[in-house]
Amino acid sequence: MASGEGRQHHHRDLVPLAALLKREMKSEKMEKPNVRIGQAAQSKKGEDYFLIKTDCQRVPGNSSTSFSVFAIYDGHNGNAAAIFTKENLLNHVLCALHRGLGREEWLQALPRALVAGFVKTDKEFQSRGETSGTTATFVIVDRWTVTVASVGDSRCILDTQGGAVTTLTVDHRLEENIEERERVTASGGEVGRLSIVGGAEIGPLRCWPGGLCLSRSIGDMDVGEFIVPIPYVKQVKLSKAGGRLIIASDGIWDALSSEMAAKSCRGLPAQLAAMQVVKEALRTRGLKDDTTCIVVDIIPPDNELPSTPPPRKRNKLIDFFFRKKSRDSAGKLSKKLSAINIVEELFEEGSAMLAERLGNDDNTGQSTSGLFVCAVCQVDLAPSEGISVHAGSIFSTSSKPWQGPFLCSDCRDKKDAMEGKRPSGVKVS
Fold first, then answer.
1. pTM here?
2. Which segments within 16-135 are labelled E, that is strand?
3. Overall domain count for the chain
4. Same-domain check for residues 227 and 269
5. Which of 318, 349, 380 is the C-terminal boundary of a domain?
6. Mean pLDDT per 10-residue run, the chain (429 residues)?
7. How many Cβ atoms sit within 10 Å of the Cβ of residue 33?
8. Range of the domain at 394
């Protein structure tokens, strides 16, 4: 009798094959979030450009390997650099990634490919002899993983459920960034304010020659080469609750803090949210610069972000009584969110030294043709032509001058110029 009950209990635990398949399909579907996008802008100078591309594929023809790209380019001294970067940066990044990589390997290789793509884009644009420059905030969303690369002062923030706001970029403004000021002066540049008649200094800190307020950009061939195109890169993995990205040019961030921008559009769908952020920036500061915003909602399949309408206005007397209680609640909520660990940081690096950013290459940087490949511009090199990115490096005593990745002579010269050194290096034989 007992054995019969055991058999009956055993049969009750069995799950039909169809149910198992359905469960697996549901689990696979849950791995891929929905992405909702909104974009809004107000033009003042006509130098802001943006890119929204949702149909990229890691393996061409395989829709299961799709990912999305979002970017904002804020030009200065003309729009040529912003247009060129919009048209070429994505392709340069993808060309720096080896084919045949699995998704996890691809994501791990992405930070280095972003560095190579930014430097190649800058090198190619400067070869045209045009003097304009641009910031670049470049975002790749692959399922729940977000990878952001940026130079300049456009910004990307992440707003997660519960109100935790994370900045995924670093502003490369000389006025605010002490480390960048020290790097520029160590590389041979001078940092100071604009001098006027009488010796008075006005305006933000600038780099001379050129007078640029930024320490990193693409283009700007009329300033010192210590203004580098090497991006700060951050890669994070969201929880299955998702989150909202707000990517915007400094026309937004000069008017709103990251928290203000996130709060101003909570509870709104992506398109209305982008419009609201621009509206709030204009209300706060007026149209003094090009103002561009992209909102990207990364949400679980078949779900929407919870609708949290903006708080209704209360009179001052009610505000007085409720203010302390609200602050206490917000503090408790922040502690709970920290414990949950909503965002997992996978990678973060902001060094402006190319050798540090390209790392060590154990496969000696050889292409399928048996030739060496320049880690930046991806051209084939004979073994005698390749110059190790570590050759002559003073930043890592463990680096070996014959260890890859390798650079062509032009890219090696550019690397040395960015570091304020004369062209040098050890040939690989």
1. 0.82
2. 34-42, 48-57, 66-76, 133-134
3. 2
4. yes
5. 349
6. 45 55 50 94 96 94 93 97 98 93 94 97 95 97 97 97 90 95 92 84 89 96 92 96 96 97 96 98 94 96 56 47 44 44 87 90 52 88 81 53 82 91 45
7. 21
8. 354-418
